[in-house]
Write a structure and sequence with these properties.
Number of strands: 0
Radius of gyration: 29 Å
Oligomer: single chain
Distance between the termini: 21 Å
Order of helices and strands: HHHHHHHHHHHHHHHHHHHHHH
Largest sheet: none
Shape: elongated
Number of helices: 22
Strand content: under 5%
Amino acid sequence: MFSKTIFKQTLKSNIRLWLIITAIISAISGFIIAIFNPATIDHLLQLIERVIENPALMAQIAANFSLLNMLSTQFYIGLGTILPLIYLIITANALIASQVDRGSMAYILSTPIKRTTVAITQAAYLALALFAMFAVLTISGMITTQITHGGVFFRAFTADVQAVAEYLNTDRARLAGDPGIIRRNPRAVAVGAEARGIHPDVYTAYLDLLITAQQATPHQDAEAQPVQTPEEREQAEEMQSRFTDGLTAAAEVLETEMHLLFFDLNQIRETPEALTAAAQAAEMHELIFMGFINLQLANEEILLDGRFNFDILDYLMLNLGIFLLMFATGSISFLFSCLFNLTKNSLALGAGVPVAFYLLHTMASVNDDMEFFRFFTINTLYDPPGIVAGNSFWLQFVVLGAIGLVLYGVSVKIFKEKDLPL
């Protein structure tokens, strides 16, 4: 039921295209991973937050800027789907219909090899080639992530923890678990601040925030946090308004736009005139205003630490899902390759149906008025952002797998029983 000879010949004939497509999608995915910059994203979110005064909406927006979410929206529903689709369309046609059209299938079937063996071997090649393609994509993505961001194959530590651990000749995990060790050592604070590239005062505030967070009740639900009284909320809003007034005054002194100044609050620290103007406008002492700046910058560092979120299980599910989608889509192209004797007919439907599925899914995703199109495409069964968001996906995966298995089985039966121009 399986011919090693045919499989090897098929592999030899199609390996070049497989290598090209696999290399391209791995390079694109790796590039997106490598250029992911949590610091830049946090600055962008801060600007958005100043416009959108809706915590729930901001939380939803912030979730869309994690590494895996960026991959799910920028790669897996784009080039990560299109390029493998091109590969399977070309390859599925070449496996059966093209050989029948050229007459080479007649030579193969003139040997003792049965039609069923030929069809099963070719179907196995297409499925295994797709599996190998996404296996390479998965492994290369994990390696790129480990090299550029860390935390995939073993625990990642921030630059300050690494530097201070070396200075104190102590265990990194111990420092990461107890930032108070650094906080109590002035020299360690200086070393950590230099490693992070921030002012020691900001680093001190950062450590204080870490210590406070660790002292909080473990696994405390966010809804259980103390609710601000109207007076406390009003006071916080007033202080934020005064701080904004100070930043506006500082921006005028520095002759820059406020949103640009927000990207580099250290300009105020380094320019006494700007600090004086800001403190006066905010009606605060200069030290208090600098304390606000330090706290703001410290919070940015906290967000920076948490922005990189690489859940290896979610990443594996993203790649398993795209494989199953291509497995099912490949079975459609293979079905038409087995059904038709002419390449033009095989490609007309073997390429037309998968491309139509992709276009329908794209239209349903970008336009609410066309959302009903999602019921006419199997691409709807693969939802990368939903996987990252924690939505249920196993039923969809099972359906995709079942579609592929059934259509491959039907294809083998069709090829076995059809009339061939031999």
